[in-house]
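Format is sequence with structure; example below:
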Amino acid sequence: MSLVKEFRAFAMRGNVMDMAVGIIIGGAFGKIVASLVNDVIMPPIGLLLGNVDFSQMAIVLKKESIDAAGSTIPAVTLGYGMFINTIINFLIVALAIFMVIKAMNVAKKKEEAAPAVPPPPSAEEKILTEIRDILGSK
């Protein structure tokens, strides 16, 4: 089998397609969570802390300077405010995934706990039961 055919067989499997859809939806969900954190959650927290914009919080390691040719060399900073935003994004995504998995586990336990109704005996089983009962009565 050629490499192209083998790859095509792999890529067209159901699990790979499901995974691709999950990754795309996950990426979109990540953008929604990032917007929620940056635009809804962090502004009130920053307001409560005295008009602090977390995305702009950073430690300046080296200030902006101008080289001999007159070009501006940008400042070197550690953006710990964006790191805080990213941690909050992660916690929200982790909580959402936890809740989905918890709901799936609860549904799975309910499914396992519900006893399945046994199917009615087949005609052969009925006949064999009758034969057993006749032989047992002799």
